[in-house]
Amino acid sequence: MAKLHVSTTINGEPQEFLCDAEQSMLDVLRGPLGLTGAKEGCGTGDCGACTITLNGRIVCSCLMLAAEAEGQEIGTIEGMAGEELHPLQQKFLESAALQCGICTPGVLMAAKALLEKNPDPTEHEVRFWLAGNLCRCTGYDKIIRAVMDTAADMRAAR
């Protein structure tokens, strides 16, 4: 079967790749594109470890066909990298809101999307927004606190 040619933007950079029609975005990210931050935890969209953004909306990359990226804007955890840590990353470190690291990229992507949409979330809103991200190590309290503290710091900096 012929490969599909896909032109997209990933983390602000134009990208092109070839993929099979049934290949997931997660497989392309981790394979040919070498962006291994998104993890495969379940392969069924239940755990959130593979969370990326598609035009600013969070999606499970294990459920997204790579061909659907054509002409779209994709954001991955690698896009949070820079000269300095993103405020969420810094707060996660300070709060010990991570352990094994499997869920962390997806949680950070979901939390970043939340704070971009709502810079002043309630704890209930944070919990609701992150409900699609499963963590088997931390118990969520430190994660929720890190997101809430980041939101507070961002508001104070305005």
UniProtKB/TrEMBL annotation:
SUPFAM superfamilies: 2Fe-2S ferredoxin-like (SSF54292), CO dehydrogenase ISP C-domain like (SSF47741). Signal peptide: none annotated. It holds the Pfam family Fer2_2. Residues 4-80 form the 2Fe-2S ferredoxin-type domain. It comes from the Bacteria. Keywords: 2Fe-2S, Iron, Iron-sulfur, Metal-binding, Oxidoreductase. InterPro entries: 2Fe-2S-bd (IPR002888), 2Fe-2S-bd_dom_sf (IPR036884), 2Fe-2S_ferredoxin-like_sf (IPR036010), 2Fe-2S_ferredoxin-type (IPR001041), 2Fe2S_fd_BS (IPR006058), Beta-grasp_dom_sf (IPR012675), Diverse_Oxidoreductases (IPR051452). PANTHER family: OXIDOREDUCTASE WITH IRON-SULFUR SUBUNIT. This is (2Fe-2S)-binding protein. It comes from Reyranella aquatilis.
